[in-house]
Amino acid sequence: MSVKADSVVNNNNDRKISKQSLGSNDSLAPKVAIVETFGEDQSYRYSFTYEKATLYEFKYEKAAKPAAIDPCYRCNRRVLAQDQVDIGVLFHKQCFRCRICGLPLTIQTFYRNDANESDREIYCKTHVGKNVAQIKSGEVPPMGIEGPSTGPGKKYIFQVTGSKRPLPATPPKPQMNKGIGSSPGMDSLASISPRNMNDTSAWTTQTSPNMSMESTPAYENFRPHQYIQQQQVKPSPHPKSVLVSYEDFENADVFDAQLLLEERHREEEERLLRFLMEEREKELKRLDDAIELEKEKAADDLLSSIENLSITSSIPRSLVDEKERIEDHFLQLKEERLKVVTEKIATEEKTRNGKMIDRHCHEMMTLIGEKDRQMDRLCLFDHSMKPPPEPPEGKKSSLYKSPAVFEALDLRALDLANKDYNTMTDLVRDLTRTCKTELEKARVLFRWVIAKDVNKHSVNEIVRPHATDRLLKGVKSGKETYHQLYKKLCSYAGLHCEIVLGYSKGAGYKPGMRMDGQTFRNSWTVVNINGSWRLVNCTWAARHVTGHKDNLPQMYHKYDEFYFLTDPEDHIYQHYPDDPQWQLMEIPLPFSEFLNLPVVKSPFFNYGLRFYSNYGATLNTDTGMVEVRLLIPKILGFGSMLEPVHRQPSEPKQIEGRTLLRLVNNEAIFTIALPATGLYYFSIYVGDYWKSECLESACTFLIQCTNMKGRPSPPYPPVPFFGPTPVMENLGISAESNIDPLVVCNNDFIEINFVLSKDIRLTHTFQYFDVSDGSITDIDRYVFLRSRNDTGANYLIRCHKAGFYIFSLFAADITGEAQSLDCAFRYLVICQEPSPTVAMFPKTYQKWHRCTLHEPLTGDLRVDKKVIFRLDVPQAIEVFVVINEIWHHLKHKIGCAWEGQVSTGPIPGVAKVYARFQGATKDQSIFSQMLDYQIVDDAETEI
């Protein structure tokens, strides 16, 4: 192994310091030790030690070769499903740290180096876009959480040996071969991404504070991951409940005991309801009495003013008007006070009802806990004891891969949603009759609540207007929420469920808005499944869609799978709890960072989208250009909307032609060219199919442009996206030369190559977009299919003037019955400086598609010139060039090549290329037209 050692540098005066001086004059200065060790087998070890008041260390070892299945980008070892962090590349949870300093990161706090697309490492906010050499030289601080004293010029001491703390005993391992390598990520550039989002206010170290990575034989025998495994204590599994399945509850007589307890609960509910009704009547009577007293006093004052007038004079009209004004005033005053009192009463009723529900749920769980002990006195699990709020063990995907596994349970829940029940016990008994696990119970209760939420608008209530559902009485009266209903159901099923209060970025919220007071207040639930708390939102999960069928009102209900057992790192984009413990995240997110997250809706996660880098809610630009990049699992349908925050009523709501979408590999790249300075909302919409007309809102940003350097960019062509479509994969087509659909042409022509896996039908279009009037013109003579065979197609493109060009490839299976060809790939060609000698290509015909033209590539030939024709025409018997009815025979060369020199003659006209093919037709004397050239005077070709 070879070790890259660091000089000892003092950043205040850039002078070398001896190791002996470290313990005296600079004993209080922070000490940084960075050691990089490289092996001849391409293995790599990295150590970052930072000693201030305490010692902080970060170490990792990268295997020589990545694992064959799911390798970790940091250490090359396999990542198991329950330990994955997927951001386009996989990381272990313990490896998801800053490449430089090892700061623990989350999905919300990591950064990518957008300036270097080949750098797929992750960084903290301080070190994004930086490399190890910059830390060593003192250009940037080694850690970014010290406070105002952090920055260049702060006194740091860099040393090779690090601290003098002893090494722990470590198991021996074979010596690795020594060699020289280079540090990964050393060529990182400064980040130029949009405004970054997060910072981290707390960090921990993965390794023991006594560990060191000095360049010593002891370190050569040390494997960090082995030490961690030895030091970590495997957590004990959660105690398992005795009563889980429906059969367990039935055998333990839980349902019978619940019926008795529910009866007592119902009596308390009725008593509370009567009490609340009496209290409401008292409050309303007090309000009426107070209004009447004030009204009588005002009437007495008016009467006194009348008595002071002369008896003989008539009552002036002003007094009559005053009496009417008093009547109107007190009527309005009563309405205002009634509103305040009603809201106060409703709040108190909800509070009292909520406390009663909490108590009832606890009593129900206590009852089940007693049944636990009756079944097994040695059972460690107790239903009456609520587990502490902790991050869940594993992701949602570790519980189930697809909602299809719940198909039978979902159908049962929907069926029972149309049936009325008198007791909660009977309802839960029927719902959970086939349930074997806590997950199945939580699911079937969730789907029932969603169905009831939708059905409250259904036609059934019109058909059966007198039908009553006693279990939904509290919900329909407004005293109980669907979250409380779900909590009650869970308690009957033996599941711990809690209601969480906080803020939500719901309907009406836009990025950059404030959140305080009662604005955007919301609630949701957490349910405990197999010892882990999981996030559930029944209200947001329920969606209903109205439609018409056969002139009858119909209700279609659709639910959102995202809100069932949502992963905390996804849930935090929309919901922020008052109690940070209920974020269920290892490192809680500060409220300020929650506000700075973009507005992200559930379709973003349902369609498997991820941000390439951490974007803030506000994207700042001083050039008028902004880029947003999404990681996509497949080609999806996308749409976008750019709208000004402050607009005049006469201005359109949406700004057209300012967004360019490119699909490159597994990324969707949105480029926004703002028309002027100001504030804008930018929203992205997504659908399952690339031709989807119905798109769902995925995410929204606020774009702020305070200053624009230079003139605004012109609008983009009105094209949904540029790049491949699923037709490419279905037909086995791949773009060989230009994977990025954005191509810049500043030469005589550009070349585009497609690789084909089989014989298919191909065609193309080439169009020019005029930014002055928004028109699109076909210019087929500026694109040429130079060659085409079973394995590929080669196109040449010329741009005759500056602007935007659209090249589209269409394809279809040659054996298919489809008459039309679908778009397979679409390029946007930008020409900034067209060549002054640009000319059109020759015109092609159907028989040309398997041939290749070498010269001439110019479609306009000048008169009185000798032109060499060279082309490949497979299976041709003869090839001729016909000019003014004179046939010029081309000579057959090696293979399928044909060549000859032809004089264009003195008269302008058309030069046509014909070929006669062997076995192509019954009559081999038929000639097929291949190409057309225009013969023009010199004056016509002058620029």
Automatic annotation (TrEMBL):
Listed SUPFAM superfamilies: Cysteine proteinases (SSF54001)
SMART domains found in the cross-reference section: LIM, TGc
Sequence ranges assigned to domain LIM zinc-binding in this UniProt record: 70-134
Membrane spanning residue stretches: none
Keywords linked to the UniProt accession: Coiled coil, LIM domain, Metal-binding, Zinc
GO MF annotations in UniProt: metal ion binding
Coiled coil residues, start to end: 266-297
Pfam families recorded: Ig-like_KY, LIM
Keyword Cell membrane: no
Domain of life: Eukaryota
Listed name of the protein: Hillarin-like isoform X1
Species: Biomphalaria glabrata
